[in-house]
Specification:
76% of the residues lie in helices and 0% in strands. The chain is mostly helical and 608 residues long. The longest helix is centred in the C-terminal third of the chain and has 34 residues. About 1% of the residues have low confidence.
């Protein structure tokens, strides 16, 4: 393996973050192209590393590079989208974004657990300030909750890392360190009930950041969990823990989708669906088999694609209407046809409808549960199927309230779909939803089997057959829509008689958010919704009530730390910028000297 290019994505990310500080006075137009160049360079570094090192990598290293490529690609799309969504943001946002990207790549590319932990903390700090970036009251609450919960998770993870050499010495320590690992990685991944930071942080963060948080950051928790479980602890080392993992997957899956069903804030709804989809990945991991791991890894890739696309589409709706409330949307299909098309593709993908990519990975997880057998696996399979049905129901509500229905939302700006910085990422992600559904054999044989280090017998032909029926169903639906629409125009329209008073369609409209709200009154799950609304499922709130003094100390310390960083950091940054401005004197020769010096320094860092 050529180590010199292995950490190239990390080095380029951090270098781009530094360059944004150096050229902070250069103007937004220059920094826009600097960000795009940096994003392309990071993604290209991953592909180049894969090309150079592919024949010499172990299975674990292939998995690391697979995660790094996924992180870099989704990040590139989010960086491009940011140029349209946040055109007025300053160099701090751009620098934090690339610091975040570099840290995520560092987590998955690290050769040691200590290095992984260092990058883990850098990632937490960078994402904290990105969630806090708008500096609203909502953002502050969400950011402090996020940093405190993930900070607690980091303590558990560090405890597990430092004591990992004891797992073969004593069975008690092995159970203790496995529990510690599960808490540390589970908080970052958003498993139930450690998920409560996620539905607060995603809506509060800028939409491109939400796309990265949901699409790739929570996958770093999954990556760490896979490496610990399959490499250090080994699957099925404890039947009790295996059962607990399956139950966590089921509860995460159903808890997330039931909470998503009743949401009317589109970003909060998508955040709960992220939790639900993590439940599917947990089921694949919990099986402890090669088929289960293939399904989990495939769903990691697919979830990154369609969930990032959903957040980017939601950002267009928010930008168009100035609101996150589904009740303020409606009738936007003709005004935003591209957004309607790509969000429909993403909605069908996340719901597991063939022939889209979500169907393939969910099918593999179903297959893993069936092959595992046992009562608990059957219950998990039934829960997974129910979760897919409820996910589809939830996104029918989203598509209806946003793009169809009788309500007609007013768009604050025109020409929202004219920017290639926004169009290209969404179109390419939608294409990914189709391609990863059409060619499952290529994905598994070229990427997933090498990541496992073994060939796994999968019934790919059956998946292709089901996808074919999916294509036929879509074709029939499209034909019925086209011809049925022309046929319906032949009917005469009359005004309904409603007791002498005539109401418009808009006045009698009943949106999906209110209709789905009636689910809260269903007996068996009424208590669940009541517990969630009163904070009884929020482990952060529960800990604050049990230890109010500790909670106040940590909260006040966090507030003072943030204020200190802003106050002192701005002073230090201004002094640094003044010094760096001396380098920008307009002399081309001096620029070339510094450019070569930077390249030499970067190459030396990579070499070491």
């Amino acid at each position: 393996m050529d180590v010199r290019v292995w950490f190239l994505p990390v080095a380029v990310s951090f270098a781009t973050a530094f360059l944004h500080v150096v050229f902070c006075k250069a103007g937004r137009h220059f920094r826009k192209w600097l960000s795009l160049a940096g994003g392309i360079a990071v993604a290209a570094g991953c592909f180049y590393s894969m090309y150079v090192n592919y024949m010499y990598l172990s299975s674990g290293q292939v998995m690391s590079l697979l995660f790094a490529t996924l992180i870099s690609t989704i990040s590139l799309f989010s960086v491009s989208y940011s140029q349209w969504y946040n055109p007025e943001d300053n160099f701090v946002y751009d620098s934090l974004l690339f610091l975040f990207i570099g840290a995520m790549n560092g987590v998955v590319l690290s050769h040691s657990l200590i290095a992984l932990y260092v990058y883990w903390e850098i990632m937490a700090v960078a994402s904290f300030f990105l969630v806090l970036f708008t500096d609203t009251e909502e953002a502050r609450r969400a950011a402090f909750k996020y940093i405190i919960m993930t900070g607690a998770g980091s303590v558990f993870l560090l405890f597990s890392i430092l004591g990992i050499w004891l797992i073969e010495e004593n069975i008690f320590w092995k159970h203790l360190f496995f529990f510690s690992m599960l808490i540390g990685t589970g908080i970052k991944a958003g498993i139930f009930p450690l998920h409560t930071w996620l539905p607060d942080a995603h809506p509060a963060a800028p939409t491109p950041v939400s796309s990265m948080l949901s699409g790739v950051m929570i996958k770093t928790g999954i990556y760490a969990m896979i490496r610990f479980y399959f490499v250090l602890f080994k699957p099925s080392w404890s039947i009790g823990w295996e059962t607990i993992l399956i139950l966590i997957g089921v509860i995460t899956l159903l808890g997330g989708v039931f909470l998503a069903l009743v949401q009317h804030d589109i970003k909060r709804l998508l955040a709960y669906h992220s939790i639900s989809q993590i439940g599917y990945i947990m089921l694949g991991i919990a099986c402890g088999t090669s088929i289960g791991l293939v399904g989990a890894l495939y769903h990691v890739i697919n979830h990154a694609i369609f969930k990032s696309l959903l957040f980017l589409g939601a950002g267009v709706l928010i930008k168009a209407t100035g609101s996150r409330e589904l009740g303020n949307y409606g009738g936007l299909a003709r005004k935003l046809p591209l957004t309607f098309g790509v969000m429909t593709v993403a909605a069908l993908s996340i719901s597991g409808v063939p022939p889209f990519n979500g169907f393939v990975s969910k099918w593999l997880i179903y297959q893993a549960l069936l092959s595992k057998g046992g009562e608990i696996a059957v219950v998990a399979l039934a829960a997974a199927l129910l979760g897919s049905v409820l996910t589809l129901a939830s996104f029918i509500k989203v598509l209806n309230d946003s793009f169809m229905g009788v309500k007609k939302a007013e768009i604050s700006k025109q020409g929202l779909e004219s920017s290639p910085f926004m169009n290209m990422p969404m179109v390419l992600l939608a294409a990914g939803c189709l391609l990863f559904g059409l060619f499952p054999g290529v994905v598994t044989e070229r990427f997933l089997f090498p990541a496992l280090g073994e060939y796994v017998p999968l019934n790919i032909e059956l998946i292709k057959t089901a996808s074919l029926y999916g294509w036929l169903a879509l074709a029939v639906f499209c034909l019925l829509f086209i011809f049925g629409r022309n046929w319906m125009r032949k009917f005469r329209k009359t005004e309904p008689f409603v007791g002498g008073e005539i109401f418009t369609a808009e006045e009698t409209a009943f949106d999906g958010s209110h209709f789905y709200g009636t689910i809260k009154e269903i007996g068996p799950i009424k208590r669940f919704y009541s517990a969630e609304s009163t904070g009884k499922l929020d482990i952060y709130a529960i800990a604050g009530k049990i230890l109010p003094g500790v909670n106040r100390v940590f909260h006040n310390a966090a507030v003072r730390a943030v204020d200190s960083v802003y106050a002192r950091g701005s002073v230090i940054l201004n002094l640094a910028v003044k010094k760096l401005k001396l380098l920008q004197n307009g002399l081309l020769a001096r620029y070339i000297v510094w450019l070569f010096a930077g390249i030499i320094f970067l190459m030396e860092v990579i070499r070491r």
